[in-house]
Amino acid sequence: xxxxxxxxxxxxxxxxxxxxxxxxxxxxxxxxxxxxxxxxxxxxxxxxxxxxxxxxxxxxxxxxxxxxxxxxxxxxxxxxxxxxxxxxxxxxxxxxxxxxxxxxxxxxxxxxxxxxxxxxxxxxxxxxxxxxxxxxxxxxxxxxxxxxxxxxxxxxxxxxxxxxxxxxxxxxxxxxxxxxxxxxxxxxxxxxxxxxxxxxxxxxxxxxxxxxxxxxxxxxxxxxxxxxxxxxxxxxxxxxxxxxxxxxxxxxxxxxxxxxxxxxxxxxxxxxxxxxxxxxxxxxxxxxxxxxxxxxxxxxxxxxxxxxxxxxxxxxxxxxxxxxxxxxxxxxxxxxxxxxxxxxxxxxxxxxxxxxxxxxxxxxxxxxxxxxxxxxxxxxxxxxxxxxxxxxxxxxxxxxxxxxxxxxxxxxxxxxxxxxxxxxxxxxxxxxxxxxxxxxxxxxxxxxxxxxxxxxxxxxxxxxxxxxxxxxxxxxxxxxxx
Length: 482
Fold this sequence. Notes:
By secondary structure, the chain is an alpha+beta fold. The chain is built from 17 helices and 14 strands. The chain folds into three domains: 3-164, Lysozyme, CATH 1.10.530.10; 222-370, Cysteine proteinases (Cathepsin B, Chain A); 395-481, Roll (SH3 type barrels). It is 36% helix and 17% strand. It is globular and about 70 Å long.
């Protein structure tokens, strides 16, 4: 269940957009919006991973769920009575204890029966801060109820509001850092035009952008790093060329064999210069008239953000191609790394929307609003795509999607059989975002959970790779049980 689906679920249940986002901000702070999340400190104590704990509770092999006081699920339910009620609710619904929709149903049940005052706030809230404080102080009631934690959770909620609510909201705490358009403030009429680089520039077009087994160049495969270089140079005032960005991509494992650049490249690349960047949508928007990702991107552009879009077959490319987006005088503008032709930089809006697949948002508000350059001397942002951890502690990256089915016969250790490597994805399906690519032969673990897409079982797997513990979906067609 995606965060957008969670938002829609809560609004349908009667919450205002601000109320739903205030609740989601707290859910994000508690569990990362991951339904099978087991409190990290209890994983080692109990000897379970998220998936293993969930499977053991579902199967009945672990009977301590009610009383172990381990935070679990979207709201990190901890107290014995509440955990017991959650387990019984799941059993009655015939769902896994780690099912996101079931947990939201239980969340609403708790609000109705035990926290009616909180529910009343969530159904009437006009600001995210109002809803977030009610959730934090009267429902979640964590040990840290400081002003700083209230502000932090409200900011998380406001980020959801900016993405999902689709209308002006009030500032959350007397600042406009995370509000969409504060009262009395108009949208930017123009953002500063980013520096334009062309991957076909003779200074670097023939330079290698490749990994072992291919012979590609910046000119034919370097659109992603070239797009990043445009914005990095613009925001830092430094001379960061496509050649520099391509080298960083290769050195950090983001060049895809036989293709261009892995989607996971952008967040850590910008983070290396202290700039926040994130992938907006995980569901492919290409030729998808129901997709809202382009409209959400436009909202960000109007506030002073830049964006990068991945185009699919059509006007901009025959396969896949990254372009830079910015806002000027009421229009979306395009910096195309491969062309200056009019139909590529001033293309038809409906055509662009139809051919765009994925979007990345780059925080450029300070630069566009005040002209302040980013101090790119150190990374102030730690993106989710490259989790950071203290020495000796394994970092984690977990899928946003949840497994829909369980078959204990599937549980076991598997080896990757795909010669070019296998993606671990946020959501089951070949057209969803990738977290990492595992080399052929890598061993992974499955605990019986999976989601079937077009007749293929996408196994919910777990593996530690290059110091990061990944939990997500990989195609069972390229995994062999060992």
